[in-house]
Amino acid sequence: xxxxxxxxxxxxxxxxxxxxxxxxxxxxxxxxxxxxxxxxxxxxxxxxxxxxxxxxxxxxxxxxxxxxxxxxxxxxxxxxxxxxxxxxxxxxxxxxxxxxxxxxxxxxxxxxxxxxxxxxxxxxxxxxxxxxxxxxxxxxxxxxxxxxxxxxxxxxxxxxxxxxx
Length: 165
Prior knowledge:
This protein has 165 residues and is α+β, with helices and mostly antiparallel strands. It is 38% helix and 32% strand. The chain has a 4-stranded antiparallel β-sheet with strand order 1-2-6-5, with no helix packed on it. Strands 4-3-7-8 form a 4-stranded antiparallel β-sheet. The longest helix is centred in the first third of the chain and has 29 residues, at 18-46. The protein starts with a helix and ends with a strand.
């Protein structure tokens, strides 16, 4: 009979009371809040929030880019670009679809992921609205930034991604 009473007494020692749950709850969330606070403080100290050393100047340059975009929209010029017969070709049209003659066109070719291999290409008009430039052997992906302007000072900027075999 005494042996039967001993397990009952041992079981009574393992009873979880309300204050045990409260202490566990407070400790658990205290650790979580403490770790989160540590991460937030470290993140704040390692990133001051600035993405540019010259934010004001960057904003002015962005405003100029927006003005240039509005001027291009008002012109209504359209351009297509690609590689034809081993040479770069740009076709330029006005709002009505007529070819644009007498433009001065140049392009900067560069790789999307590196600064190596940059090339500047100038284009010559081979027929009305058709401009051809020699870039040498090209293979792979290239970003082409085209600048075109006429004698009156109108300018158009365009970007194209060329993927060549």
